[in-house]
Write a structure and sequence with these properties.
The protein contains eight helices and seven strands, in the order βαβαβαβαβααβαβα. By secondary structure, the protein is an alpha/beta fold. It has a single domain, classed as Spore Coat Polysaccharide Biosynthesis Protein SpsA, Chain A, CATH 3.90.550.10. Strand 1, helix 1 (17-25) and strand 2 form a beta-alpha-beta unit. It is globular and about 50 Å long. The model has no long low-confidence stretch (mean pLDDT 92).
């Protein structure tokens, strides 16, 4: 626990057998109460590796549900375990789990209800080997998102995020896509609901086994990001009524 709050780390996994152990080894278990791994029908031995590591909560999708679908299962499982704070970390070792303590403490101390680990703050992205075209696309998309959504984040596209359980009582993540744009729909929901997002600087590592999407998927993702940001603005102006921005009904 941290600050009297139960902390769960969720690992949305797909073909992560080669990097899972390195990621898992850096988790600060003196404060982390639960670790959840959701395997999205991997073609390697991700589940077997998770079992060998002693991960207690393993959810296996029988068919591939996509990046967003995987996260939906992650958060549902963590909330069922009564987690107060949920940290989502990609198990591809692109990000270090050593920041979990810092991110969770910000939420536990009531500073921010949501915290993102940014590769753009500082020089982490290019230093860690982020391809230049991805860096430029990241910066341009983030600029557009900040303008359309009235925010000042350094990055919306990180795979390392921490949340207070309270936000899941308000936003409806089940209304979001099961694809990669899920992250940005969730960011837009959080901002639309009036929550503030804090950021911490995060180093990153790009290498052969780190997860990545090809140029075509990146382009589709980029268009989806722009669509979500425009929808956000139109909903704020009352011109559009998108289901993702409707408050969760109880």
């Amino acid at each position: 626990m941290i600050g009297g709050k139960k902390l769960a780390v969720v690992l949305p996994a797909y073909n992560a057998a080669k990097t899972l152990e390195m990621t898992y080894a850096e988790i600060p278990f003196d404060i982390v109460d639960e670790v959840v791994l959701v395997d999205d029908a991997s073609r390697d031995n991700t589940v077997e590796t998770a079992k060998k590591l002693g991960i207690e909560h393993i959810v296996k999708h029988e068919s591939n549900r996509g990046y967003g679908g995987n996260q939906k299962s992650c958060y549902a499982k963590a909330l069922s375990l009564d987690a107060d704070i949920i940290v989502m970390l990609l198990p591809d070792y692109q990000y270090t789990a050593k920041l979990i303590r810092a991110m969770a403490s910000i939420i536990a101390n009531g500073v921010y209800p949501v915290v993102y680990a940014s590769r753009i703050l500082g020089k982490g992205a290019l230093k860690g080997g982020m391809p230049i075209y991805k860096y430029i696309a990241n910066r341009l998309l983030t600029l557009g998102q900040n303008i359309l959504m009235g925010q000042k984040l350094s990055e919306y596209h990180t795979g390392y995020r921490a949340f207070s359980k309270d936000i899941f009582d308000v936003i409806d993540i089940e209304a979001n896509s099961d694809d990669f744009v899920f992250d940005n729909e969730m960011s837009a929901q959080i901002c639309y609901a009036g929550y503030e997002i804090g950021e911490v600087t995060c180093p990153t590592k790009y290498f052969e086994d780190a997860s990545s999407i090809n140029f075509k998927r990146s382009a589709i993702y980029g268009l989806g990001v722009i669509r979500v940001s425009i929808a956000y603005r139109l909903n704020k102006w009352g011109i559009l009524s998108s289901k993702i921005f409707q408050r969760k009904s109880h």
